[in-house]
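Tutorial handout. Part one gives the primary structure; part two gives the three-dimensional structure as tokens.
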Amino acid sequence: MSGDTSNTQYPGRPDYTGPASGLGAYVHHDRQVEYCQSFKERITVIMRDKPEHERATRLHCLAYIDPTGKPWMAEFRLWSKALWTAHAAELKALVDRLVPDAPWNGRELVFPLPDKDWYPERTT
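Part two.
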């Protein structure tokens, strides 16, 4: 079996070796894309402050978005509503490819119910 199996894309999953900061998917439960100052710090907050039944979903969905080949992402630290609107469809498609199994209902991540291994009904 050949190919690179290193994890450079998913900070919340084991053996992440990608950038420490950057544009991220599902950094917070109610935004599909935003800049993350520190993936490590965000993971610490998730593990320390978020309800236990949300942690696995949050960590699984957290993804680094590589700006390579997308010159318009150069200013992602200074994102404005206009920049988001101009590229929303492309970003949504990219996030959907990165985390196709994200339990996103169009507004936020949907977490499994406490003490259950299933999710409430999703709208999308």
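Part three, for discussion. The radius of gyration is 15 Å. Residues 1-124 form one domain.
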